[in-house]
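ok trying again, last paste got cut off:
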Amino acid sequence: MSDVTDTPPGPVQQDLDSIAALLDAVVPAKQVDRNLLVATWNLKAFGGLTPKWQADDGDSPKRDFHALRLIAEVVSRFDVVAIQELQGDLTAVRALLRVLGDDWGLIATDVTRGDPGNNERLGFVFDRRRLRPSGLAAELVVPTDESAISEGAFDRQFARTPYAVSFQAGADEFILVTLHVLYGSSASSRLPELRAISDWLAGWARSDRAWNQNLIALGDFNMDRSGDALYDAFVSTGLQVPADLMGVPRSIFDTGRFYDQIAWFMQSASASAPPALTMRYLSGGYVDFPAAVYPRATRQTLQWRVSDHYPLWTEFSQRR
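nice, full thing came through this time. structure:
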């Protein structure tokens, strides 16, 4: 019986060579004590896995060994990847870790129950040669009387609880906070969660009793576009998206959507602004995987094999 770690068939290897060439061209190489590569990827319904190299028409899910190896090649280029839509079924992510090897680890939440939670987890896959968890793993729960949350911002808990994990990379410690905002029935239904996460992170960054004030928010925030009410709510307390990511597409179907983000507090002249991230930003971008793999597949097919979202990435300096 075939295994996902076996030598891949010829057509799969061709796709692997193609995606590797694309990654070589668009993602900076990992450099010891020089840089840190942080990414986020909504991997659509990342749960089950069909245990063969090519899923047939009657197979479910359509994600197979071929697709999993492509996902692993992308993930391997980064130091830590926040994953959204990680499902209750851990078959695919466990296979991903087997392909990546023993140097890679996973930290994930339990599933979020109830219809809004969609049986999803949030998680981080990370390269233990480059960074390690530094002690904090927390799901963000907002007290109903939380003074740091602006009035009217929030009337319930997050549908999918944001997940924060601290990491140490060399001399740098930082906290990644990932979230998959509930899409809801309308754009206005997303406003409370976006306001709440923005308020909560600003309060955390200002607290001198917080675990660490170096915060990076990343994930699928389900914003439609820059400059709309949703985006304005997200950046209302000082979070900023780097210019490199402002114009890149998020969805393989619609270049106008602004769903996925990586953002942090930057230097500000305002005395009331939250403390800025201490790591120096270098560059950022996305991985246009449909341009490199499955040359005959439609995007409708591709979303179930790989994803309907592009990976977003950022590079930070570790030079002193």
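cool. The chain has one domain: 10-317. The helical segments are 10-26, 65-75, 91-100, 191-206, 229-234, 243-246, 299-305.
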